[in-house]
Design brief:
Distance between the termini: 47 Å
CATH class of one domain: Alpha Beta
Structural class: alpha/beta
Protein name: Isoprenyl transferase
GO molecular function, one term: Z-farnesyl diphosphate synthase activity
Keywords: Magnesium, Metal-binding, Transferase
Number of strands: 6
Family: Belongs to the UPP synthase family. Z-FPP synthase subfamily.
CATH superfamily of one domain: Decaprenyl diphosphate synthase-like
Organism: Kineococcus xinjiangensis
Number of helices: 9
Length: about 250
Amino acid sequence: MGLRDLLYGAYGRRLEASLDPSSLPRHVAIILDGNRRWAKAFGATSAQGHRAGADKVLEFLGWCDDVGVEVVTLYLLSTDNLNRPAEELAQLIAIIEDTVSRVAATGRWRVHPVGALDLLPEATATHLAEIGRETAANDGYLVNVAIGYGGRREIADAVRSLLTEHAAKGTSIEQLAEVLDVDHIAAHLYTRGQPDPDLVIRTSGEQRLSGFLLWQSAHSEFHFCEVLWPDFRRVDFLRALRSYAQRERRYGS
């Protein structure tokens, strides 16, 4: 271990010790951005960049465990990503499947796929659904894996599910329109029953949501980090938590 690692380790311990547990987020959502740029900087392939990013996931989940986060949502594959070249997409999906399997194999967390699984290859969708069922009784915190996810698609799916439910009950459109409120739609989201994210982190320096949790992030705090995802360190995570803890949450006011 070099001097730089020792210094960062000491800095990280000091940062963590300064955090008030009562001021930490319950739900952390993160956009894992920068894998391809990381690969390009090292003269590597996109697949190698995605694998490097995948290796960071378990490490990140351990950090969340250490500070008592209750829900983590990982943005692994957007609906826009499904338009990538076929060969790259196949490699990416295989890496994501392997990553989710590794998370599940630890036996530490409940893994919950969120997204339009019907847009994914059938074998992938089946595998993700099985992992969700197999880990549902685990004692650890909840890990949402957003795969084939798009915020607009989620809201459309929620409305479609809501309409289908009420149609089965014989409710007319006019009757539904009279009582419809935000709670009705929230009850049909992919993350229904979960707390909304308190903190949304995006790596790589980009400052946009890219369709991530559009409904749920209405009152979230945001932290944009310049570091590319494969280089994201524990100290970067702790800085995000410190930034969150220092804010006065206003919930839209």
